[in-house]
Design brief:
Blueprint: H1 5-32, H2 39-77, H3 98-123, H4 130-156
Length: 158
Amino acid sequence: MTKDLRVQMPLWNIAAIVGLGAIIIPMLLSEIRWFDKDLIFSFKMDYILGLISLCGIFLFVVTCILVILKTIQFNKENPNLKMNMFSLTPGEYIEDDEMFRQVTNNATRKVYTFLSCAIPILTIAVFLPKIWIAFLLILVVIIQNLIYYVEIRKYILN
């Protein structure tokens, strides 16, 4: 694993999205309430879904804190490669020289290709229940970050 935060950032994004998913999906499941017939079972399911949501909140908060700390550390160690977490340009773009600019372009192109196929398919999700919409959106964001990470990692670690 490389210590360059710009390479690790898609993995941190995935962790944050999984945390958000663990918060949102149980809320949507408890809204469906298909387990209301048996009060004891319903209580247990609410308890389990609440516990999953709490774990999601914990994962999301811890991920955010770690990303902030790692960004501060990265900026101190690399003053000429500073990352701004609140920029519109993703911090994971590595454009130190012409080769890395090309690698970033290739990775971005693959993500764009994936999104240009996934978004039309997601429009069908409008007709699905809310839980499937949330699940599919989370899945698309995870896949997008994985595509970018795998492509960048090929060149950084070789």
